[in-house]
Design brief:
Strand order of the largest sheet: 6-7-8-3-9-10
Radius of gyration: 18 Å
Order of helices and strands: EEEHEEHEHHHHEHEHEEHHH
Structural class: alpha/beta
CATH architecture of the largest domain: 3-Layer(aba) Sandwich
Helix content: 25-40%
Largest sheet: 6 strands, mixed
Shape: globular
Strand content: 15-25%
Number of helices: 11
CATH superfamily of the largest domain: P-loop containing nucleotide triphosphate hydrolases
Number of domains: 2
CATH class of the largest domain: Alpha Beta
Distance between the termini: 33 Å
């Protein structure tokens, strides 16, 4: 059996007396699409930040390709192949689209990687034509959907093996969300890019993924085949409550 690309085992995250993530274990295989779903406050973002190195873990271990990276800082994990698209996009508003994308490749400045960086830039601009059209526009003047595309593009410029996305649909119109989902599926199908997607919108997250985890109160309470989880509406409802709307159910 092959070693998972990402393996987070018995991870806990604390904020003072608050236990945000409690003994959570998840894994992502090479080329796999995995969803982490749960209501607001379930601990999804804290778990993702622990995976990418933005939060210290209070217990457990994070491994990439079988190598323990639990003590590596975030930028070292980027070099290992993890890239985060943060909740809220986090683009550099006073920089142009081109400058934001260039910053994504800051760890790949060696001459031997210049050709790969140029190819990745061309691929990002082809994947998101609106970024090509607005290449010299300040990121802060873009729409919310365009900023999300830019955040994804910037992450892709790191040359990741695993793209980690925190609430990629948050605050976006359905048509824009569909465009982003199509792009993510294409990246996975054509490049074998692994995806770990955190979503409060369980229908969207499970619809994109092959496997899923349901997080509640900082603990993994359900896991398995994504399509199978999506069919367990009564179980999902018990953990997500009103986060699933009738419209979202129809989309599924």
């Amino acid at each position: 059996m092959s070693t998972p690309l990402l393996q987070a085992t018995h991870v806990s995250v604390r904020y003072g007396a608050i236990l945000a993530v409690d003994d959570a274990s998840i894994e992502v295989a090479a080329g796999e699409r995995v969803a982490l779903v749960g209501a607001n406050g379930a601990g999804k973002s804290s778990l993702l930040k622990a995976v990418v190195g933005l939060e210290r873990i209070g217990g457990g271990q994070v491994a990439i390709g079988g190598r323990n990276v639990s003590k590596l800082p975030a930028h070292r994990r980027v070099a290992e192949g993890l890239a985060l698209v943060p909740e809220g996009r986090g683009v550099f508003r006073e920089l142009t689209v081109a400058e934001n994308l260039e910053l994504g490749s800051y760890l790949r400045t060696a001459g031997s990687q210049r050709a790969a960086v140029a190819a990745d830039l061309a691929r990002v601009l082809e994947l998101f034509p609106r970024l090509a059209e607005r290449r010299h526009q300040l990121a802060g003047t873009l729409s919310g959907g365009e900023q999300q595309m830019l955040a994804i593009g910037r992450a892709l410029m790191t040359g990741p093996r695993l793209l980690v996305l925190d609430e990629p649909s948050l605050g976006l119109a359905p048509l824009v969300v569909n465009e982003i989902v199509r792009a993510l599926r294409r990246l996975n199908a054509e490049q074998g890019l692994s995806l770990l997607v955190s979503e409060q919108n369980a229908v969207l997250g499970l619809g994109l993924a092959q496997r899923g985890y349901v997080l509640n109160g900082g603990r993994i309470v359900l896991q398995g085949d994504a399509a199978g989880l999506a069919r367990q509406s009564e179980l999902i409802d018990s953990y997500l409550g009103s986060s699933l709307t009738d419209t979202e159910r129809k989309v599924a």
